[in-house]
Amino acid sequence: MKLNKINVLGWLIIIFLGISEFFFKEELPMITKGLGGLICIIIGSTLVFYKGKKGTDKH
Q1: Residue 44 burial (CB < 10 Å; 0-12/13-18/19+)?
Q2: Which residues of the chain have pLDDT under 70?
Q3: How far apart are CA 17 and CA 11, in angstroms?
């Protein structure tokens, strides 16, 4: 599977959320706990698994 820019952006969001949960748990409670973290996970996983439209693929 070839990663495009959208998939890489999704991985960066998920990695940022993981690092902030591990190192900055007390400093960033809005992102690491509750609805903010859930929204980040949903956006990141949507971008990671995005495949694009069939007609716009330039192979």
Answers
A1: buried
A2: 1-2, 32, 54-59
A3: 10
48 near 56, Cβ under 8 Å?
no
Query: What confidence score (pLDDT) does residue 45 get?
Result: 92
Structure tokens, 8: 């890489």
In terms of phi and psi (left: phi > 0; alpha: psi -120 to 50; beta: otherwise), the region of 39 is alpha
- How many C-alpha atoms does 53 have within 13 Å on its Cβ side? 2
- What pLDDT does residue 1 have? 60
Q: What is the pLDDT of residue 55?
A: 59
